[in-house]
Design a protein that fits this description.
With 174 residues, the protein is mainly α. The protein has a domain at 55-131: Arc Repressor Mutant, subunit A, CATH 1.10.10. Helix content is 51%, strand content 10%. The chain is built from 7 helices and 3 strands, in the order ααβααββααα. The chain has helices spanning 34-53, 62-69, 76-83, 87-99, 121-130, 133-140, 146-167, and strands spanning 74-75, 103-108, 111-119. The chain has a 3-stranded antiparallel beta sheet. Helix 1 runs antiparallel to helix 6 (133-140) and helix 3 packs across helix 4. The two termini are 29 Å apart. Residues 1-6 have low confidence and may be disordered.
Length: 174
């Protein structure tokens, strides 16, 4: 799909890298480097997503933890690895989820030196309700038509796969 088919005139978007260097201080997003564009959109989506998740006392950090735990108990180390964060960061996230009643920590039957984190019934209900597809899609695709959403998804999938491949990460999010 061309830029014109997406409703964007080629002249409105600096072709970078290419003929014209982007102007990072410009107010026109068409002049911004790709990194600034991604950062700006990611921050807006993070704010909107956190506002959505707040109805369940969740945020963008705790939500994926609960999704991981839908498959069964995991150690904090396993969750941290899958989430692409440090164990210390994961400890804080799990503590918050535990205070909300969404997870419990018990002895890990596979290794008594470790603690297994398990999702509770309220945690399961909260994450499934908060994860309904349509609200999430609406939050992330505001301003795009269906064809643009399809193209964006294809690009994001390619980027995540490339990141995982270069990082050697096969099942994590980070």
């Amino acid at each position: 799909m061309t830029n014109t088919e997406m409703g964007v005139q080629v002249s409105d978007v600096a072709r970078w890298p290419g003929e014209q260097e982007p102007e990072p201080t410009s107010e026109d997003p068409g002049q911004w480097p790709t990194g600034r564009l991604l950062f700006t959109v990611a921050r807006r989506i993070e704010r909107d997503w956190n506002a959505h998740l707040a109805a369940w006392e969740l945020n963008h950090a705790g939500h994926p933890v609960l999704l991981h735990l839908l498959g069964g108990p995991l150690t904090q180390r396993e969750i941290a690895a899958r989430s692409g964060v440090t164990e210390q960061t994961m400890s804080r996230i799990v503590t918050r989820l535990e205070r909300s009643g969404y997870v419990t920590r018990d002895d890990d039957p596979r290794d008594r030196r470790r603690r297994a984190v398990t999702i509770t019934d309220p945690g399961r209900r909260a994450v499934l309700e908060a994860s309904r597809v349509q609200p999430a899609e609406d939050l992330t695709s505001r301003g795009l038509d269906p064809a643009q959403v399809e193209q964006l998804r294809a690009l994001l999938v390619a980027m995540v796969r490339a990141q995982r491949s270069s990082d050697g990460d096969v099942d994590g999010e980070g």
